[in-house]
């Protein structure tokens, strides 16, 4: 039979692209989750000949939200719920015509649009939150039907009736939607092994080989695949071409504008707007963008190289500048600017407008204005300038913009204007002033670049000058030495050379045509004066001319060759890190001494062709080479060199000489590596090949008590050349022997001797410096006058292979030379040979592994540490949720990272720098160990330390990271070294900023998931940070700052440190100990780790007040308030302080899920908010508010502190504080609680007053009214915080539940008609929904009656999730006892418990024929035109039998008169256990008043319904079921509240009634609190009847 169905399907539809569904019992297709969010889209195509069938279904995992698309009699019907009630949209007819039809669903916040074949309809959802579920717990997307396992898992469906929908029979293709939250739409591929579908045509290219590039979406059509290029940056058949962006060139006279007031149009008004654009410029100031209407405006400009913003609203004004440290935006680079404004209404008279701006996604700032405004208004816009820029409101610049702009978009709510595109297309809306060119130049050859480090360099193609050629450039610097150009041959034996260098402030040109090295000075005077200088070199054959600033010098090369063979690359700025494979000529002194050029460079012309060096810089080392040239003030006056280091000014940098100190590093901030020698030990450096040099620089620091000792000696096995430094007779002796193999035999043993100093064996530190430049020698000891000399003769080259420090190694075997000096006894540090720190290098490398091209360093001496107790610039990261942004790590060709840390936390991201493509570098703590991860484009390399103990021991640990060669990476932690090999030889192309201590919370999901494990930041101390030759001051050099990062790192023991007090407690130092001030933590105890007094505010309004005595009302100039809370409410008053004599007040509240504080001291309202964090997520949050005068600060949890500094004349004292209100705002006029809070409040402290503690102690100044109860253990009981079990992400559940049928309600438990959305109108067409009313229960107090023993004590439980007493077979009834003095509980002889109080609701539970019938009546207010208020009374009757559970609802209009809040009634249901099943109905509270008439009507209705139900029971006896009982899985934490389904009611275990959840959180572990969604309307599950 199945084969016949399959055959029929193929006959009808043939072979089609997409996939076929045959409508059988297991026919469906399952896809990834839909990232619907608040603005998601979903689209697909289908064709069928059947009029009915389920096309698509997805929901939030079984709670509220769902989307169902189906065919109903040939029409397409979308039914969805976003928490505010179901909405239905029907479009089309006779769609079962066997042709393809396209369906598109688009969401915009509360609006949902359904489009079928270009015909659209829209519906608007009710409520205040419109996010589709939570992505992590939403279900997958099901097409064509539902899996059969849902038959026993209806609890996991938000719309259980979907399981009964007929399955779709037909074909589906081109299913497109975002499958990550906030992601772009993408085509969803089928997976045959996971789905019950029939495959279509195997030639569908989209299915098997997607041809679309750059995010293009492949669309299957009957004529073949096409690509939709939804990324606006690309176009073409396969989206393979870069699309020319909308851009324009502004030269100071051009600008774009529109002015609606001139055309008679109305201004554009919106609740929020944003502007985004890109710009690049060399000019420091100019107007970028302006929008406004009258006094309301937004002005964005570049001013002095930074971004300036001014905003005006309702006569209020706010200014903001984004000016990162050492970063300018006039660098002729593209910068992206995003500015966003949003208005939130705080009260009826005060609104809050937040202004936020971000540059390049990194540099950000925000501010706000408060006032009497409701909308943003725009009647005119200017882009790039205006007629009179200085006259614009908020103008901070007077001139128009000069430069390029790209992709200028202005968005106001849903209106989107691409202004440059409109201007280019000639739109009537846009006016264009001047002649705009809509294309920016790609690059200009005269763009300057700046080399910022000795290692920074560019690699260009070779200079083709075989017979003749010319080359010219301009440069500026104040550094006396540096290699500017180098181009050599790479094919020996002939290695030609061309190079230009600055040495000792003069220009030198080097030329070798194969006949010998020629060197010529070209400058008449010094050129290291910081001014621009022009250099030109021309050559024809052997004749050459070097011209510097117009001064010519002619010279000839060595006789012989006349051609210049340069087959290697042209290097500009230097040769990069040391030990490269480039052969360095002995006479090129700057290259031998590792001195690259540092300064500005431009206008490179080779053979009359201009070279765009800026474009090369952007493609290569963009971190160390800046594409601009600015001069900065001198830096040495700020004394950056520490510990006695000597500062020298460089080009926009400082250079610290630390060789006379015990310290090393860029700022002499960390202890230098020190070796101790005992007379038998040594250090040996062996180069990879023989070295021949004409210049050497040697620095060495030592101390000894011996008069004789060998400090250093060089050697080679080929000749007798050597340099020897030794202590001889208490003096420093230098012996030099050069050119031995070329000398006569009698001259080979002669040394050039220099002596310096006296009594250097005094066991004090001494520094020796020796330098040689050809024949010129200089020897200096400490600060004494140097000894100068010259060598005799023509021999000035030194050949060497090894350097021995402290002694000789196997003297008689390997050294073909002798020395009369014994080995050294003492300590040596600061050893530099040609500017390479070999002792520091040895400490960071393993001596066991050799590296190709890298010197082998062998050490027999011991490293020693001196107790300097020096921490270099320590900082403390006080939170895991913060970070510092530093300039990008300059690690293009080498990596050199050092830092120290200490922490108690085992995990956390320490640093991260992303890059282009896949490149990145990261350091993190994982399980107490350092992980170093790097990707240079050839795959990820991960190194993990092998230290035996964990590093989160609150002790300092040292980390060193190196890339000694292109293929090798090393990680050193303390004395532990790990080495890894890289597969390729690529450079590290980083981009963006270096994140230190963590990243922005939204970026963790974007980190390389398989490589970087951290999901939060580092908490602890970091010190001694060195980054590739720079030692940044973390606090001062940060481009992104954080208030949670502080300078210094406190010690341990009995002294205060940042982490001895938990949860943000303040440590107070005592004489020999410390105490913790917990007032701002919401916790208590000696270390602020104990739970404070907590109260739960139920759904039926409650409030706690503290009233100050009239004779003791405080006058406060400063207020400090802190508390913790858990809630799902998006709008509520948390705490309010009012004055007894004035209108002064402080109100802390939740608005749209964000915390705001509004205070008024007698002038006007001052709002302060944190809008980056939603707090209605059912997790524990701590709020801290501090007011000092009219200034204030607000902090949520450990996120950044928000501050407010109102301008103008402001009062500073809160007069006569009379009352503190917690849980809402008490309205005296209405005698009611407005904007009530629902959830848990804990540890409320107001100016040192613990209000909840006083309430628990029944202090006479406190009062509790309404639905408020004292609770405990909120942070330990997390099991009941869970939402209902969610649908698995993919696959099938492992344990199948019994079938449970459930209705759901859309009832409203508030007594404010504005809170309750109206019910759907009857007879409105579409589907009528039968939605039983759900009355939210509250937590019942524990019963005092002990449980009755069962007949079968100890009977084993056959379900791992069942609870005590299940399966006992006995009926146990426990009446609920409450503690309210005004409540009356009556237990009737027939075991029906009726409890009356002030809730206005009655509920009865009666046992009939082995079943329990619960009758609940609820009164709900609706507005009426009559003086009386009309109430719809809904009666819910729930009948529980052995077979099933049914629900029905009747609605009866009634009239009642309003009463005071004190007149309330409530009835608690009874927990009943019967034959292994449990039905629990919690306490129900509805704030209405009953009357005799209402009671009579209720009785009549109840009687009629009971009769109907009895008839139903008789009928059900004839309907068989496979299972005669159902169970409630208590371990899954089903919520009994407005946010939970009407399923497993809370069970009673050991006589203790479990807490029920009323939409607000009541218990749970802080670390595992699950988010829950707050809805205004409470319909949870819907049955379509």
How is this structure best described in words?
There is one protein chain. This protein has eleven helices and 115 strands. It starts with a helix and ends with a strand. Strand 75 and strand 76 (968-973) form a beta hairpin. Residues 1-16, 199-203, 811-816, 1277-1490 and 1519-1585 have low confidence and may be disordered. Strands 85, 86, 87, 88, 89, 90, 91, 92, 93, 94, 97, 98 and 99 form a 13-stranded antiparallel sheet that branches. The chain has 1585 residues and is mainly beta.
Briefly summarize what is shown.
5% of the residues lie in helices and 41% in strands. The protein has 1585 residues and is mainly beta. Strands 85, 86, 87, 88, 89, 90, 91, 92, 93, 94, 97, 98 and 99 form a 13-stranded antiparallel sheet that branches. Strands 1, 3, 8, 9, 10, 12, 13 and 14 form an eight-stranded antiparallel sheet that branches.
In round numbers, the mean pLDDT is: 78
Can you count the helices? 11
Biggest pleated sheet: 13 strands, antiparallel
Portion in strands: 35-45%
CA-CA gap between termini: 32 Å
Sheet/helix structural class: mainly beta
Report the helical percentage: under 10%
Rg, Cα atoms, Å: 40 Å
Number of strands: 115
Question: Keyphrases for this structure?
Answer:
single chain; 1585 residues; mainly beta; 13-stranded antiparallel β-sheet; eight-stranded antiparallel β-sheet; 115 strands; globular; disordered C terminus
Give the helix/strand layout:
Blueprint: H1 2-13, E1 19-22, E2 29-31, E3 41-47, E4 53-59, E5 66-72, E6 75-81, E7 86-91, E8 101-108, E9 111-116, E10 119-124, E11 141-143, E12 169-177, E13 186-187, E14 198-199, H2 205-208, E15 217-219, E16 226-228, E17 234-235, E18 241-242, E19 247-251, E20 255-259, H3 260-263, E21 268-270, E22 272-280, E23 286-293, E24 296-303, E25 306-313, E26 316-322, E27 335-345, E28 351-359, E29 363-371, E30 376-378, E31 380-383, E32 402-412, E33 415-418, H4 419-424, E34 431-433, E35 449-451, E36 458-460, E37 468-476, E38 482-488, E39 497-503, E40 506-512, E41 517-521, E42 533-540, E43 543-548, E44 551-556, E45 570-572, H5 589-592, E46 599-606, E47 609-611, H6 613-619, E48 625-626, E49 646-649, E50 654-657, E51 663-664, E52 670-671, E53 674-678, E54 683-693, E55 695-703, E56 708-715, E57 722-728, E58 731-737, E59 752-756, E60 766-773, E61 776-781, E62 787-790, E63 798-805, H7 811-814, E64 825-833, E65 836-837, H8 838-844, E66 856-859, E67 862-864, E68 875-877, E69 884-886, E70 896-902, E71 908-914, E72 920-926, ...
Antiparallel strand pairs: 1-12, 1-14, 2-11, 3-8, 3-12, 4-5, 4-11, 5-6, 6-7, 8-9, 9-10, 12-13, 15-16, 17-18, 19-32, 20-31, 20-34, 21-30, 22-27, 22-32, 23-24, 23-31, 24-25, 25-26, 27-28, 28-29, 32-33, 35-46, 35-48, 36-45, 37-42, 37-46, 38-39, 38-45, 39-40, 40-41, 42-43, 43-44, 46-47, 49-50, ...
